[in-house]
Predict the 3D structure of the following.
Amino acid sequence: MTDPVIRISDMNKWFGTFHVLRDINLQVAAGEKIVICGPSGSGKSTLIRCLNRLEQHQEGVIEVEGVSLDGSVKNLESIRSNVGMVFQQFNLFPHMSVLENCTLAPIWVRQKTKQQAEALARQFLERVRIPDQADKYPGQLSGGQQQRVAIARALCMNPDIMLFDEPTSALDPEMIKEVLDVMVELAEDGMTMLCVTHEMGFARQVADRVIFMDEGEIVEENAPEAFFSNPQNERTKMFLSQVLSH
Amino acid sequence: MSAKTWTPKPARPAPANTVGFVGWARENLFTTKLDSALTLLCAALIIYVLDVGLGWAIVDASFSGDDRNACLKPVQGACWPFIDAKFGQFIYGRYPEMERWRVDWVFALGLLGLVPLLMPTVGFKRANVIFMLGFYPMFSFFMLTGGSFGLAAVDTSDWGGLLVTLVVAVTGIVGSLPLGILLALGRRSDLPIVRALCVGFIEIFRGVPLITVLFMASVMLPLFLPDGVNFDKLMRCLIGVALFASAYMAEVVRGGLQAIPKGQYEAAAALGLGYWKTTRLIILPQALKLVIPGIVNTFIGLFKDTTLVLIVGLFDLLGIVQLHFTDSTWATPETHITGYAFAAFVFWVFCFAMSRYSIFMEKHLSTDPNQ
Ligand SMILES: Nc1ncnc2c1ncn2[C@@H]1O[C@H](COP(=O)(O)OP(=O)(O)OP(=O)(O)O)[C@@H](O)[C@H]1O
Ligand SMILES: [Mg+2]
């Protein structure tokens, strides 16, 4: 097996005195797709936000592509630019058109020319199936379209890893599918993905591993088939029965 | 099953008394008895004010003459010849008459640079900004003060009128915005020392009246400077006004910064943008757009506050108008009020223009279809 692109060992994090992540150990190989689920407040978002250091951990080691994310990290910006992130609330830049949203970072971080960046952006907008919305502003798009722009914006940086934090939870049911379709396609292309989601269909379809978290710990970790059909832990069973009963 | 064919009913014109002016008036002016009463009352008030105002400014006014005798009719309105006779003074102060073309050039070039800058559709914004912030201030400085390039030196104590008002207001405006932005950013900084400095600066300057700042600038500042270094009174006032305005500006901008959701910072960080790029490309454009009304409000306040430079012996527009009230050639009962009306009108034109421009800009920059 090649070196993992993400290696987390004995990682702990506190918010003030609140112990939010406890002894996390996780390795992710290149091209692997990981789905993280768990009840609200279990620390899923915090965990993946630690991977591009939007949150800082206090103990243990997090290595992304061989670089250890700690206080001494030098070019945090270049690490972040290799790790794409998609948020629950889209977080598009409302004062910029869709195209500008997508070209901003390639131009200002990757030093691409405007033409190069626009060509790239149009290519990815095509891929997320909204090529004709390039000149609109985020406020003029539906939630599903906005989230697809957010995915395209992240992809324009050619990231090696993509992090998704409940990308479909803020969407109406009929828009969830259009976003998931894009994500499935991305997975099929071999992107390394960590995805916090409760879309169990998606997990079954693309995940190599499903991770269940509760109270800041990784409770269970398994291939999707085994995870869904034969959960080992009582807590996992309870959670699954709640999630799958909808 | 045979489906019925359905044809929409043809549209009928709306009842006559609900459309057009009659409809509008019924809807807006005379909806209820109280509305009707208020409408009539306000109409009467408007007519009364217009009648008195126009009567004074036009009907009973004098328009020509060379001295006070033109304005001593039994029923005398405005004494416009006074303004006419003093117009040069009001605009240039005691700037030598032979050299006034220099001021005109500065005004003209300023207008020439400003108008395209303010029109969003005109291109070359970068060049325009460099021109207005780089070349123009230097040009104005050498042109107005003289003493080089073969121009006669004109001491700033001879400057006056609208010239001083504009110099003080424009430097205040141009200086306070960037300084205010930096202070606002500093106040939200993670670095305790930077934060403390900015908070201290803002609270001190916001806590004292502008007059105090002006006094300090003209009396205290020289004490901090090494011996022999003594710069101009006008210059000191400019600095005082700019610092004072920047403290207000900082608080306005901070309001905008606070309204930007955390997700915007996170999205920018996740894309690999650093602090300054995030601030410049993501945060400030949104924050400043949100607080345009507040920024322009501060500009307008600043513009009117320039009248306070009179306190330290500089004659701005209002100061110079007042100064000429003492001229016995024009001593009439209407001189004061005419002068004040003129000064008020000039101030109003500038402030109103700023206000309208801000509304235009807010609409122009809006990307939210729901507004
Ligand atoms: N900035 C913060 N400061 C203090 N506590 C926080 C902060 N962010 C999150 N928490 C707390 O940490 C815990 C884990 O939060 P996190 O957002 O990671 O949960 P989650 O598993 O993503 O939940 P959800 O499904 O609701 O998104 C929660 O109890 C939350 O209240
Ligand atoms: Mg979460």
